């Protein structure tokens, strides 16, 4: 700036301020922003960001690939109008967001829709996003496609079920052969005209029900079905499992003894998976054969 004395410029002066630190901070912020943008842009998981008004601000290329909608179709859309969220989930999602907006969610298994109508199993994660002043500015959502992983897990479970069923086959064959032998014997007696036919019919009917029960338990064990957690009577599950292993225990000179107390509460579980647990436990106990009997308690 000029220095003026008596309307005459006699010199100039200037003021210099060291802004190196501010420049370095801005440069670091720029680099951090570029790193984050690169992370989002090149991430294999679908990532989308929404603001406090619950409208989509950004999606990454993986989102477009995974779900089939373009950025132009999704940006600006309100959370509850997003086409890839199943309608039945929206009510729960609205309640969860309103109850605790800042609480992160990590790896919640749920489902989403593709544009072509296909259903994807996904792991849902949500994190709050904060501005430079530390105030919450929105949410970042990550969706990982776990459809193939879920399929492989189901295949593995089904393979384990078939393996268990195969291991039980020999014992079950003996278990079925016994009532069949009884039925054949009574048919022979009826043909010969001996004994009380009504009594024979009652015994034969009982033996047929026994065969049906054994086959039903085997089919339930081997049949593929999705995991379903429901309230179950653990005593009933245990007794049904014993039906499958009864002959195997006898063949190994082992007696299975049960002792259940009154008022045993129901257990929330997957019945089929619980049966597999009991089968593995009982088979190990039978094969150990340290004693000629083992006792099962229910409290």
From TrEMBL:
Residues 106-158 form the PAC domain. SMART domains: HisKA, PAS. The keyword Disulfide bond does not apply. Its EC number is 2.7.13.3. It catalyses: ATP + protein L-histidine = ADP + protein N-phospho-L-histidine. PROSITE patterns: HIS_KIN, PAC, PAS. One of its GO terms (molecular function) is phosphorelay sensor kinase activity. Keywords: ATP-binding, Kinase, Nucleotide-binding, Transferase, Two-component regulatory system. Residues 32-88 form the PAS domain. InterPro entries: HATPase_C_sf, His_kinase_dom, HisK_dim/P_dom, HisK_dim/P_sf, PAS, PAS-assoc_C, PAS-like_dom_sf. Residues 171-299 form the Histidine kinase domain. This is histidine kinase. It comes from Brevibacillus centrosporus.
């Amino acid at each position: 700036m000029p220095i003026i004395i008596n309307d005459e410029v006699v010199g100039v002066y200037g003021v210099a301020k060291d802004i190196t630190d501010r420049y370095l901070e801005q440069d670091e912020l720029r680099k951090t922003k570029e790193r984050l943008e690169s992370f989002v842009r090149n991430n294999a998981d679908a990532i989308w960001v929404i603001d406090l008004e619950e409208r989509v601000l950004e999606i990454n290329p993986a989102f477009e690939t995974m779900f089939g909608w373009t950025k132009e179709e999704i940006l600006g859309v309100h959370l509850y109008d997003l086409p890839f969220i199943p309608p039945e989930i929206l009510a729960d999602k609205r309640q969860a967001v309103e109850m605790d907006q800042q609480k992160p969610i990590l790896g919640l298994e749920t489902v989403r829709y593709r544009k072509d109508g296909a259903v994807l199993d996904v792991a849902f994660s949500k994190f709050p996003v904060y501005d430079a002043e530390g105030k919450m500015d929105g949410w970042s959502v990550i969706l990982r496609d776990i459809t193939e992983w879920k399929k492989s897990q189901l295949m593995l479970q089904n393979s384990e079920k078939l393996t268990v069923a195969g291991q039980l086959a020999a014992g079950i064959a003996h278990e079925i052969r016994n009532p069949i032998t009884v039925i054949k014997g009574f048919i022979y007696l009826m043909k010969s005209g001996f004994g009380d036919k009504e009594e024979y019919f009652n015994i034969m009917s009982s033996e047929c029900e026994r065969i049906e029960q054994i086959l039903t338990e085997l089919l339930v064990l081997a049949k593929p079905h999705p995991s379903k957690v429901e309230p179950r009577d653990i005593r009933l599950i245990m007794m049904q499992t014993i039906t499958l292993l009864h002959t195997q225990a006898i063949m190994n000179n082992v007696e299975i003894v049960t002792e259940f107390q009154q008022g045993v509460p129901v257990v929330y579980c997957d019945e089929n998976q619980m049966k597999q647990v009991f089968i593995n436990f009982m088979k190990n106990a039978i094969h150990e054969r340290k004693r000629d009997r083992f006792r099962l308690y229910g409290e």
